Amino acid sequence: MKKRNTVLILGIFAFALMIIAQVIIIRRGWKQVDEMIYHRYRSLAQEANTSLRGSRSMVFDTVSYLLDYYTEDLMKELTQITDDQQLENKKSDIFDYFSTALNTEQDLSLYLSEYFANQDAENEFNHTIIITNLEILSEDTLVVYRDPEFRGRRTSRDSEGVEHSLKGSTSSILVTRPWLVGNNYAVNFDYYIDFTFKRSMILKELSASLGLSIFSIVIVVMIFLYTYRNLMEEQRLSELKTDFINNMTHELKTPLATITVAGKTLEIEKIRQDESKILDTAKLIGKQSIHLNQLINMILEISMWERTEFQLDKKKVDIEEIMNDIVTSFRTGCSDCASLMEKYTFNGAKADIDLVYFTTLINNLLSNAVKYCDKDPEISIEGIAGDNNISIKISDNGIGISKSDQKHVFDKFYRATSGNIHKYKGLGLGLYYVKKIATAHGGDVTVSSKPGKGSIFTVRIPF
Ligand code: ADP
Fold it and tell me: What is the DSSP letter of 268?
């Protein structure tokens, strides 16, 4: 348990470190690609801006016309304003109008988009126009808005171009700082482009390394889980083996102790003079020797199966007849230890089976049904012949098997963990033996059970 937890904790720790390392690497890569994209589009924007020089006015023709039209009416309105508050409100309206008009009616975005497309570059971007200075030109120039960092109407003009980005963001690039002068206004503004799809652009660039990184993480996790599972399985088997050795010692010692005591009894003069007592003791020795022999044979046989193929000596037999014989001898053998109810609808079906192994299979299931019962055992044995196989269902009213134990009862050495194991003696080999025999016949065996209610074992053999 301690070893298991140490391995698990170390594994999780190593895994966490690996994820952190990968995240750092990916973040660095992301930043590099981000910068690369920024520089690429910055220089593309610069080129586009330079190529526009001669025809710059064209891209702002529509908006200039619109603003001229708007400011013409505005002049009259402004002369009628007397109140300061009213003037401030009007300035705010003017600013909004200019901002909307510039953002929606310019053709620079279209030009840039085409330019980028011609250069095989990404041409889906958003633009942002930020007014830095807005004046209404009348006899007294009215400054509607002026950015505190604005450096003069003419000097700011288009000079630094693409050197800046919006609020230090690498996704927006300053393309140009135009200056538009109409009949009644002068406006300076910054035109930015913003690659909103930059995340997917970066992802595209990083896809190979991201894919490799995820793939390597998945592989490492799979290897870890596989190794961990093997380790757990090894530990489980080693625990099962230890249990088996304890159980085997216990199982073998009981008949041996009885035989030893019986032998000692026979040494007593008084006993030797009573013939009936000699006979009883001899019978006891005989019975215990047979039991001991059966146990040793089962262990030897199972260890032999590990090394050689399972050899069956099959014969075609009337299955109902065989079942009757097996159940009758079980009943006699255990001195009517249980109520056994039989119900067969085999319809004279004949199956190819190895009689010796098949008898052991049914006997093991019957003796378990008697053994794992804490009341008077009631066992029902049903047999049906289907289209391709015969099925034999053995139900009991015993202690039942929990869901988690049901998954393992057919494993070698497995004994259910719930309940008092020592109360029911065994080696954990009976059902393993049953499963081996059923599968060697091309069939299988399954269990369904409810703790406290009983169990049903179903054996299917093809015919
Ligand atoms: P063993 O009986 O020697 O322990 P088996 O392989 O025959 O080994 O059975 C494995 C385990 O399955 C048993 O330890 C027992 O807990 C459980 N089991 C088997 N048959 C029954 C049954 N009919 N009712 C309840 N539990 C059973």
Answer: S
Whole-number percent of the chain with pLDDT over 70 = 93
Average pLDDT of the residues of the chain: 87
Residues 156 and 210 grouped into a single domain: no
Domain boundary among 196, 212, 232: 196
| CATH number of the domain that residue 212 is part of | 1.10.287.130
Confidence of residue 157 (pLDDT cuts 50, 70, 90): very low
138 and 30 housed in the same domain: yes
Span 193-222, pLDDT tens digits: 888 777 888 888 889 988 998 998 899 889
Determine the atom of ligand 1 nearest the C-alpha atom of 419: 16
What CATH number is associated with residue 428? 3.30.565.10
Query: SS3 of 394, please?
Result: strand
With a Cβ cut-off of 6 Å, ligand 1 is lined by 368-369, 372, 396, 398-401, 409, 414-416, 426-432, 455
Q: Which among 437, 382, 431 is positioned nearest to 410, based on CA atoms?
A: 431
395 CA → ligand 1 middle, Å: 13
Unique residue bearing structure tokens 């003796």: 367
Question: What's at 138, amino acid-wise?
Answer: S
From the CB of residue 176, how many other CB atoms can be counted at a distance below 10 Å? 24
Structure tokens at 311: 């050899």
* CA 48 to mean position of chain CA atoms: 50
pTM to 2 decimals?
0.56
pLDDT-based confidence at 95, cuts 50/70/90? very high
| Domain match, 289 and 406 both | no
Cα(389) to centroid(ligand 1), Å: 25
Q: How confident is the model at residue 278 (pLDDT cuts 50, 70, 90)?
A: very high
Q: Which ligand 1 atom is nearest residue 433's CA?
A: 6
Q: Ligand 1 mean position to 324 CA, how many Å?
A: 24
> Given the CA of residue 369, which atom of ligand 1 is nearest to it?
23
Judge if 210 and 172 occupy the same domain. no
Which atom of ligand 1 lies nearest, measured to the CA of 373? 24
Amino acid letter, residue 246: N
* DSSP class per residue in 30-60: HHHHHHHHHHHHHHHHHHHHHHHGGGHHHHT
**Residue of the CA atom closest to atom 17 of ligand 1:** 416
Range with top average pLDDT, 71-75, 304-308, 361-365, 413-417:
361-365
Expressed as residue numbers, the domain containing 295 is: 203-307
Q: Look at residues 288, 307, 326 and tell me which one is the last residue of a structural domain.
A: 307
**What is the predicted pLDDT for the residue at 165?**
54
